[in-house]
Amino acid sequence: MSKSFDFFVLGAGLAGLSISKHLIDNVASVCLIDTCEVASGASGTPLGLVNPATGRWGTKSWRAEECHQAVYEDLKEIQDHTPVRLFDKTGILRPAQDEEMAERMYDNYRKNEWPDDWCHWLDKKEVHDINPELHCVEGAMWLPNGLTVNVPTYLKSKADYLSNKGLRIVTNANYSLDQREEHYELTLKDGESIYANAVITTAGYQTKESTYWDFLPLHAIKGQVAVFESPQTRKFDYSISALGYIASISDTRFVAGSTYEHHFEDVEPDIEGLDYLTERLGGVYPALFKEAKLVDQWAGVRASTPNKKPIVGAHQEIDNMYVFSGLGSKGLLYSAYLGNALAEYILHGSAIPKEVSVSRI
User: Fold this and answer.
1) How far apart are CA 325 and CA 310, in angstroms?
2) CB 186 within 8 A of CB 195
3) Based on CB atoms within 10 Å of each CB, which residue in 201, 249, 278, 330 is the most buried?
């Protein structure tokens, strides 16, 4: 087994697996390392949406077309190599919950330059025809290209796929990292040393724990998700985005998420988070929650930034040291596109978009 690589990638979530794939596709050798398992952090949410209209008002996401295309192509490629269903093009319905939301969502629908068939405005009657039990004020956005993704299965399948292409994956790793004259040395707890020419940190909110990146303005936000069982689940086959999201994972089970907790004492799921989700999303789809029984809860911590854009690029003082972090709640949407952008920057000198470049810090 090789002990020398072109790159260490530190963190086996959406960012880490994305940059690893693009490097391997360019014939680089990569060792992916995580202190836990693949998809064990914020990227391990039970289910996620690729939603091009984000935030309370349905604002068109940054580079929505390019980001959507990149993750859609990636999902299809990984899906071709596993029998387990990873994602569905469910579409996303965004019913307005009050008059202000309806007005601002309609403005975003009308003023943004959406590609053909990417965003439609449905009036209240049209929403009622789709689902009369949804709470809706004035109307809703309908995003037919929205994707619903089984995130842990996607990432674990991607890890297996990349492992077969030569990626070395080291999980549950307790390690130390040292910079030598012409390379980096990573020493595992069993004493094994492995080497790489460059290091890419993709550890989410834990990126700030690195002495190389402790200056980054990353803010930890806890998100909680709950899985419920309800016979009402079979009545909808699209995902719902309103004050959070609701999406089915089977004929009888659905996921409700997510909280956005800026202040928290621990990272475990709690009753406060469950109450928040039940009350908030129960108002969006009362009949669904009336018969729902809790199956499971999950919590993770995301890394956000002041302008809510990821941080990507090279350390300005240390050679061959890179970062890919701050994906926030848009990891699914951004990861494949920015993984390619970072790989192109490292390997070919292509420019990183200024909105996400680490040079803005």
Assistant:
1) 6
2) yes
3) 201
Report percent pLDDT > 70 for the chain: 99
Q: Which residues, 6+ apart, have CB-to-CB distance to 77 below 8 Å?
A: none
- Tokens 């300005």 sit on residue: 316
pLDDT, tens only, 280-336: 999 999 999 998 999 999 999 999 999 999 999 999 999 999 999 999 999 999 999
Quick one: CA torsion of 12, 199, 168, 152, rounded to 10 degrees?
Answer: 10
Helices (H) and strands (E) in the chain, counts: 8, 21
Q: Look at residues 166, 174, 158 and name the one whose alpha carbon lies nearest to residue 33.
A: 174
Local confidence band at 1 (pLDDT 50, 70, 90 cut-offs)? low
Nearest to 31 by CA among 51, 57, 12: 12
Q: How many CB atoms lie within 10 A of CB 203?
A: 25
275 φψ region: left (φ > 0), alpha (ψ -120 to 50), beta (else): alpha
Residue among 303, 355, 351, 312 at smallest CA distance from 330: 303
pLDDT tens-digit map of 162-182? 999 999 999 999 999 999 988
Report the C-alpha gap between 139 and 128 in whole angstroms. Answer: 9
Alpha-carbon distance 347 to 211, whole Å?
25
All structural domains of the chain, each given as residue ranges with its CATH number in brackets, are: 4-44+152-216+307-360 (3.50.50.60), 56-149+219-304 (3.30.9.10)
Show the 3-state SS of 301-318: EEEECCCCCCEEEECCCC
Contact 289, 246 (CB under 8 A): no
